């Protein structure tokens, strides 16, 4: 069975998606892959399920069929994030990135996020201790 063009685009986009080094146990790629598999595999269930609720027979529709055009729009959104289209279209001003109250705030935050995954348990405990002393 050949896979659809949408499925191939999803696979290409997810292959390019960066890994999250702060939370390696939580994978966006795996979550999206499960969603794609659920949406692209044909359902063997009936289109409507009959359910008895509160003594009355009701009909519950199953999810709609695979809409290739809507899925291509979703793929386009993934590609737009990968290509940083919104950062290019709406650049942040220097005034926003360097607030007067704390000009190095975002620089320090980026540095902290880059260092966090490589810290040892002991370094994390020392930073926690420093943070608690700073707050008192």
Please tag this protein with its features.
7 helices; 136 residues; single chain; two-stranded antiparallel ribbon; mainly alpha
Overview of this structure, please?
With 136 residues, this protein is mainly alpha-helical. It is built from seven helices and two strands, in the order ααββααααα. It has helices at residues 5-16, 28-40, 68-82, 85-89, 94-97, 105-115, 121-135, and strands spanning 48-53, 56-61. A two-stranded antiparallel sheet has the order 1-2. Helix 1 (5-16) packs antiparallel against helix 2. The radius of gyration is 23 Å and the shape is extended. The relative contact order is 0.09.
Using only C-alpha atoms, the radius of gyration works out to 23 Å
State the total count of DSSP E strands: 2
Biggest β-sheet strands, sense, barrel: 2 strands, antiparallel
The parts where pLDDT drops under 50 for at least 5 residues are none
